[in-house]
Amino acid sequence: MVDRQQDTHTIYIIGGPTASGKSARALELALEKNGVVINCDSMQIYEGLPKLTAQPSEEDLSAAPHELYSHLHPNETCSAGNWREIVEPLIHKVLEQGKTPIIVGGSGLYIKALIEGLSPMPDIPQEIRDATVAMQKKLGNPAFYEALHKRDPEMAERFHPFHTARLMRAWEVLETTGMSLSVWQEKERIAPPENWHFEKELIIPERSVLHERCNSRFLMMLENGALEEVEAFNKRVEEGEVHHNVPLLKALGYPQLVAYIRGKLSKDEAIEQAQARTRQYAKQQITWFRNQY
After folding, report:
1. Number of domains in the chain
2. Could you tell me which of 217, 215, 221 has the C-alpha nearest to residue 52?
3. What is the DSSP letter of 47?
4. Which secondary structure element, helix H or strand E, spans residue 99, and what is its range?
5. Does residue 3 belong to any structural domain of this protein?
6. Which residues contact 105 (CB under 8 A, 6 or more apart)?
7. Most buried of the four, 27, 197, 273, 293, by CB within 10 Å?
8. How far apart are CA 171 and CA 169, in angstroms?
9. Residue 30: per-residue pLDDT
10. Residue 4 placed within a domain
11. List of the chain residues with pLDDT < 50
Protein backbone atom coordinates (compact mmCIF):
# COMPACT_ATOMS: atom_id res chain seq x y z
CA MET A 1 0.00 0.00 0.00
CA VAL A 2 1.40 3.39 -0.98
CA ASP A 3 1.88 5.86 1.88
CA ARG A 4 0.04 8.85 0.48
CA GLN A 5 1.43 11.20 3.11
CA GLN A 6 5.17 10.49 2.96
CA ASP A 7 6.28 9.45 -0.52
CA THR A 8 6.45 11.95 -3.34
CA HIS A 9 4.76 10.71 -6.49
CA THR A 10 5.22 12.08 -9.99
CA ILE A 11 2.16 12.47 -12.18
CA TYR A 12 2.99 13.27 -15.80
CA ILE A 13 0.72 15.65 -17.69
CA ILE A 14 0.91 16.00 -21.46
CA GLY A 15 -1.10 18.88 -22.88
CA GLY A 16 -1.47 20.55 -26.24
CA PRO A 17 -3.87 21.20 -29.11
CA THR A 18 -5.77 18.62 -31.11
CA ALA A 19 -3.68 16.63 -33.62
CA SER A 20 -0.42 17.65 -31.91
CA GLY A 21 0.73 14.09 -31.21
CA LYS A 22 -0.12 14.02 -27.49
CA SER A 23 -1.50 10.48 -27.52
CA ALA A 24 1.59 9.07 -29.22
CA ARG A 25 3.82 10.81 -26.70
CA ALA A 26 1.70 9.52 -23.80
CA LEU A 27 1.99 5.95 -25.10
CA GLU A 28 5.75 6.34 -25.51
CA LEU A 29 6.03 7.58 -21.92
CA ALA A 30 3.75 4.81 -20.62
CA LEU A 31 6.00 2.16 -22.14
CA GLU A 32 9.06 3.88 -20.68
CA LYS A 33 7.69 4.51 -17.17
CA ASN A 34 5.41 1.49 -16.60
CA GLY A 35 2.58 3.98 -16.97
CA VAL A 36 -1.17 4.13 -17.29
CA VAL A 37 -2.49 6.63 -19.84
CA ILE A 38 -5.41 8.60 -18.38
CA ASN A 39 -7.66 10.60 -20.67
CA CYS A 40 -8.12 14.32 -20.11
CA ASP A 41 -10.27 15.18 -23.11
CA SER A 42 -13.85 16.34 -22.67
CA MET A 43 -15.04 14.50 -25.79
CA GLN A 44 -13.00 11.30 -25.60
CA ILE A 45 -14.45 10.53 -22.17
CA TYR A 46 -17.77 9.70 -23.88
CA GLU A 47 -18.67 6.53 -25.74
CA GLY A 48 -20.27 6.78 -29.15
CA LEU A 49 -17.76 8.51 -31.42
CA PRO A 50 -14.34 6.95 -30.75
CA LYS A 51 -13.07 7.47 -34.30
CA LEU A 52 -14.30 11.04 -34.71
CA THR A 53 -12.92 12.06 -31.31
CA ALA A 54 -9.56 10.43 -32.12
CA GLN A 55 -9.53 7.94 -29.27
CA PRO A 56 -6.57 5.52 -29.14
CA SER A 57 -6.58 2.65 -31.60
CA GLU A 58 -7.02 -0.98 -30.56
CA GLU A 59 -3.30 -1.43 -31.13
CA ASP A 60 -2.46 1.43 -28.74
CA LEU A 61 -4.98 0.22 -26.15
CA SER A 62 -3.34 -3.21 -26.15
CA ALA A 63 0.18 -1.78 -25.89
CA ALA A 64 -0.38 -0.06 -22.51
CA PRO A 65 -3.25 0.45 -20.04
CA HIS A 66 -5.60 3.31 -20.92
CA GLU A 67 -8.29 4.76 -18.66
CA LEU A 68 -11.30 7.09 -19.04
CA TYR A 69 -11.77 6.61 -22.77
CA SER A 70 -15.43 5.93 -23.72
CA HIS A 71 -15.98 6.00 -19.97
CA LEU A 72 -19.36 7.79 -19.84
CA HIS A 73 -22.67 7.50 -21.65
CA PRO A 74 -23.20 10.57 -23.87
CA ASN A 75 -26.11 11.75 -21.69
CA GLU A 76 -23.94 12.00 -18.58
CA THR A 77 -22.54 15.36 -17.52
CA CYS A 78 -18.80 15.86 -17.29
CA SER A 79 -17.41 19.21 -16.19
CA ALA A 80 -13.88 19.92 -14.96
CA GLY A 81 -15.15 19.24 -11.46
CA ASN A 82 -16.81 15.95 -12.43
CA TRP A 83 -13.65 14.80 -14.19
CA ARG A 84 -11.52 15.70 -11.19
CA GLU A 85 -13.79 13.64 -8.92
CA ILE A 86 -13.31 10.67 -11.24
CA VAL A 87 -9.59 11.03 -11.86
CA GLU A 88 -8.23 11.64 -8.37
CA PRO A 89 -9.19 8.22 -6.94
CA LEU A 90 -8.02 6.66 -10.21
CA ILE A 91 -4.59 8.27 -9.76
CA HIS A 92 -4.43 6.90 -6.20
CA LYS A 93 -5.28 3.44 -7.56
CA VAL A 94 -2.57 3.62 -10.25
CA LEU A 95 0.03 4.72 -7.69
CA GLU A 96 -0.96 1.92 -5.31
CA GLN A 97 -0.35 -0.53 -8.15
CA GLY A 98 3.21 0.80 -8.44
CA LYS A 99 2.54 2.35 -11.84
CA THR A 100 2.93 5.87 -13.23
CA PRO A 101 -0.11 8.04 -14.00
CA ILE A 102 0.17 9.84 -17.34
CA ILE A 103 -2.58 12.39 -17.91
CA VAL A 104 -3.05 13.38 -21.55
CA GLY A 105 -5.51 15.66 -23.31
CA GLY A 106 -6.39 19.06 -24.63
CA SER A 107 -9.03 20.07 -22.08
CA GLY A 108 -7.01 22.70 -20.27
CA LEU A 109 -9.62 23.46 -17.62
CA TYR A 110 -9.59 19.80 -16.58
CA ILE A 111 -5.82 19.89 -16.16
CA LYS A 112 -6.04 23.14 -14.22
CA ALA A 113 -8.71 21.66 -11.95
CA LEU A 114 -6.44 18.73 -11.10
CA ILE A 115 -3.27 20.76 -10.48
CA GLU A 116 -4.72 23.81 -8.75
CA GLY A 117 -7.83 22.30 -7.20
CA LEU A 118 -11.39 23.53 -7.48
CA SER A 119 -13.93 25.16 -5.27
CA PRO A 120 -16.70 22.68 -4.48
CA MET A 121 -19.50 23.03 -7.01
CA PRO A 122 -23.02 21.63 -7.06
CA ASP A 123 -24.19 19.03 -9.55
CA ILE A 124 -26.78 20.56 -11.88
CA PRO A 125 -29.87 18.37 -12.52
CA GLN A 126 -30.51 17.65 -16.19
CA GLU A 127 -33.96 19.23 -16.04
CA ILE A 128 -32.43 22.55 -14.94
CA ARG A 129 -29.85 22.34 -17.74
CA ASP A 130 -32.59 21.71 -20.29
CA ALA A 131 -34.77 24.52 -18.92
CA THR A 132 -31.82 26.94 -19.00
CA VAL A 133 -31.03 26.05 -22.62
CA ALA A 134 -34.67 26.55 -23.59
CA MET A 135 -34.90 29.87 -21.77
CA GLN A 136 -31.70 31.21 -23.29
CA LYS A 137 -32.83 30.17 -26.77
CA LYS A 138 -36.23 31.80 -26.29
CA LEU A 139 -34.94 35.09 -24.85
CA GLY A 140 -31.71 35.53 -26.81
CA ASN A 141 -28.48 36.85 -25.32
CA PRO A 142 -29.29 40.45 -24.32
CA ALA A 143 -32.61 39.55 -22.64
CA PHE A 144 -31.11 36.46 -20.96
CA TYR A 145 -28.25 38.62 -19.68
CA GLU A 146 -30.76 41.10 -18.23
CA ALA A 147 -32.68 38.29 -16.53
CA LEU A 148 -29.49 37.08 -14.86
CA HIS A 149 -28.48 40.63 -13.96
CA LYS A 150 -31.74 41.16 -12.07
CA ARG A 151 -31.17 38.05 -9.95
CA ASP A 152 -27.38 37.99 -9.72
CA PRO A 153 -25.82 41.32 -10.72
CA GLU A 154 -22.39 40.39 -9.37
CA MET A 155 -21.96 37.41 -11.70
CA ALA A 156 -23.65 39.11 -14.66
CA GLU A 157 -21.25 42.05 -14.51
CA ARG A 158 -18.27 39.70 -14.81
CA PHE A 159 -19.36 38.62 -18.28
CA HIS A 160 -20.12 40.08 -21.67
CA PRO A 161 -23.81 39.68 -22.67
CA PHE A 162 -22.70 37.25 -25.37
CA HIS A 163 -20.64 34.98 -23.08
CA THR A 164 -23.50 32.51 -23.43
CA ALA A 165 -21.99 29.43 -21.76
CA ARG A 166 -20.78 31.38 -18.73
CA LEU A 167 -24.09 33.17 -18.28
CA MET A 168 -25.96 29.88 -18.50
CA ARG A 169 -23.62 28.32 -15.94
CA ALA A 170 -24.29 31.17 -13.49
CA TRP A 171 -28.04 30.79 -14.04
CA GLU A 172 -27.93 27.00 -13.54
CA VAL A 173 -26.08 27.30 -10.22
CA LEU A 174 -28.49 29.97 -9.02
CA GLU A 175 -31.50 27.86 -10.00
CA THR A 176 -30.07 24.71 -8.40
CA THR A 177 -28.82 26.13 -5.10
CA GLY A 178 -30.39 29.54 -4.64
CA MET A 179 -26.86 30.91 -4.22
CA SER A 180 -24.74 32.93 -6.61
CA LEU A 181 -21.91 31.18 -8.40
CA SER A 182 -19.65 33.80 -6.82
CA VAL A 183 -20.45 32.36 -3.37
CA TRP A 184 -19.44 28.88 -4.51
CA GLN A 185 -16.24 30.19 -6.10
CA GLU A 186 -15.18 31.76 -2.82
CA LYS A 187 -15.30 28.44 -0.99
CA GLU A 188 -11.94 26.88 -0.14
CA ARG A 189 -10.40 25.00 -3.03
CA ILE A 190 -10.08 21.23 -2.81
CA ALA A 191 -6.38 20.82 -3.57
CA PRO A 192 -4.58 17.65 -4.72
CA PRO A 193 -2.45 15.74 -2.18
CA GLU A 194 0.71 17.62 -1.22
CA ASN A 195 2.93 14.68 -2.12
CA TRP A 196 1.86 14.72 -5.76
CA HIS A 197 4.41 16.30 -8.08
CA PHE A 198 3.10 17.26 -11.52
CA GLU A 199 5.60 17.00 -14.37
CA LYS A 200 4.10 18.97 -17.25
CA GLU A 201 4.89 18.69 -20.94
CA LEU A 202 3.37 20.91 -23.61
CA ILE A 203 3.36 19.83 -27.26
CA ILE A 204 2.77 22.59 -29.81
CA PRO A 205 3.97 21.79 -33.35
CA GLU A 206 4.76 24.51 -35.88
CA ARG A 207 1.61 26.11 -37.23
CA SER A 208 1.97 24.74 -40.76
CA VAL A 209 2.68 21.25 -39.45
CA LEU A 210 -0.30 21.36 -37.09
CA HIS A 211 -2.64 22.58 -39.83
CA GLU A 212 -1.56 19.76 -42.11
CA ARG A 213 -2.07 17.24 -39.30
CA CYS A 214 -5.57 18.59 -38.64
CA ASN A 215 -6.45 18.24 -42.31
CA SER A 216 -4.92 14.82 -42.92
CA ARG A 217 -6.22 13.33 -39.68
CA PHE A 218 -9.80 14.20 -40.56
CA LEU A 219 -9.43 12.46 -43.91
CA MET A 220 -7.95 9.45 -42.13
CA MET A 221 -10.92 9.41 -39.73
CA LEU A 222 -13.28 9.21 -42.71
CA GLU A 223 -11.25 6.37 -44.23
CA ASN A 224 -11.52 4.53 -40.90
CA GLY A 225 -15.31 4.79 -40.73
CA ALA A 226 -16.03 8.09 -38.96
CA LEU A 227 -18.93 8.91 -41.29
CA GLU A 228 -20.67 5.60 -40.56
CA GLU A 229 -20.02 6.20 -36.87
CA VAL A 230 -21.71 9.61 -37.09
CA GLU A 231 -24.69 8.09 -38.94
CA ALA A 232 -25.14 5.52 -36.16
CA PHE A 233 -24.81 8.12 -33.41
CA ASN A 234 -27.22 10.48 -35.15
CA LYS A 235 -29.75 7.62 -35.28
CA ARG A 236 -29.40 7.21 -31.49
CA VAL A 237 -30.21 10.92 -31.12
CA GLU A 238 -33.19 10.75 -33.45
CA GLU A 239 -34.56 7.72 -31.59
CA GLY A 240 -34.25 9.54 -28.26
CA GLU A 241 -31.66 7.24 -26.68
CA VAL A 242 -29.18 10.12 -26.68
CA HIS A 243 -30.38 13.57 -25.65
CA HIS A 244 -30.54 16.24 -28.36
CA ASN A 245 -28.20 18.62 -26.51
CA VAL A 246 -25.33 16.40 -25.35
CA PRO A 247 -21.71 17.68 -25.62
CA LEU A 248 -20.74 15.06 -28.23
CA LEU A 249 -22.96 16.81 -30.78
CA LYS A 250 -20.31 19.54 -30.80
CA ALA A 251 -17.43 17.15 -31.44
CA LEU A 252 -15.12 18.42 -34.16
CA GLY A 253 -16.58 17.42 -37.52
CA TYR A 254 -19.89 16.11 -36.20
CA PRO A 255 -22.14 19.05 -37.21
CA GLN A 256 -20.62 19.14 -40.68
CA LEU A 257 -20.97 15.40 -41.28
CA VAL A 258 -24.58 15.45 -40.07
CA ALA A 259 -25.23 18.34 -42.46
CA TYR A 260 -23.80 16.16 -45.27
CA ILE A 261 -25.95 13.19 -44.21
CA ARG A 262 -29.04 15.43 -44.33
CA GLY A 263 -28.15 16.78 -47.77
CA LYS A 264 -27.37 20.31 -46.59
CA LEU A 265 -23.70 20.16 -47.56
CA SER A 266 -21.77 18.28 -50.22
CA LYS A 267 -19.18 15.85 -48.93
CA ASP A 268 -16.34 18.14 -50.02
CA GLU A 269 -17.97 21.12 -48.27
CA ALA A 270 -18.44 19.11 -45.09
CA ILE A 271 -14.80 18.01 -45.10
CA GLU A 272 -13.52 21.50 -45.81
CA GLN A 273 -15.63 23.08 -43.06
CA ALA A 274 -14.75 20.37 -40.54
CA GLN A 275 -11.05 20.80 -41.25
CA ALA A 276 -11.35 24.57 -40.88
CA ARG A 277 -13.18 24.23 -37.57
CA THR A 278 -10.52 21.79 -36.32
CA ARG A 279 -7.73 24.24 -37.18
CA GLN A 280 -9.62 27.05 -35.49
CA TYR A 281 -10.11 24.98 -32.35
CA ALA A 282 -6.42 24.04 -32.27
CA LYS A 283 -5.56 27.74 -32.38
CA GLN A 284 -7.88 28.42 -29.42
CA GLN A 285 -6.26 25.60 -27.46
CA ILE A 286 -2.78 26.93 -28.16
CA THR A 287 -3.78 30.38 -26.89
CA TRP A 288 -5.16 28.87 -23.69
CA PHE A 289 -2.14 26.65 -23.01
CA ARG A 290 0.36 29.43 -23.62
CA ASN A 291 -1.49 31.74 -21.22
CA GLN A 292 -2.49 29.25 -18.54
CA TYR A 293 -0.27 26.15 -18.59
Report:
1. 3
2. 221
3. S
4. none
5. no
6. 14, 15, 22, 39, 40, 41, 42, 44, 111
7. 27
8. 5
9. 98
10. no
11. 1-5
Task: Based on the fold, state whether residues 156 and 254 are members of the same structural domain.
Answer: no
User: Across the strands, what pairs with 10?
Assistant: 197
The number of beta carbons lying within 10 Å of the beta carbon of residue 156 is: 22
CA torsion, ordered 81, 85, 90, 95, to nearest 10 deg: 90
Q: Which long-range contacts (C-beta less than 8 Å, at least 24 apart) are formed by 276-279? A: 277/252, 277/253, 278/18, 278/19, 278/214, 278/215, 278/217, 278/218, 278/252, 278/253, 279/210, 279/211, 279/214, 279/215
Strand partners for 36: 101
Domain CATH code at residue 56: 3.40.50.300
The CATH number of residue 178's host domain is 1.10.20.140
Q: Are residues 198 and 68 in the same domain?
A: yes
CA dihedral (159, 164, 166, 167) positive or negative: positive
Residues 65 and 195 in one domain: yes
Residue 157 lies in a domain: yes
Q: Same domain, yes or no, for 111 and 47?
A: yes
Indicate left, alpha or beta for 77 from its phi (over 0: left) and psi (-120 to 50: alpha): beta
164 and 213 assigned to the same domain: no
Verify that 47 and 130 share a domain, yes or no: no
- Domain range for 147 is 126-185
Report helix, strand or coil for 40: coil
Q: What is the mean pLDDT of the chain?
A: 93
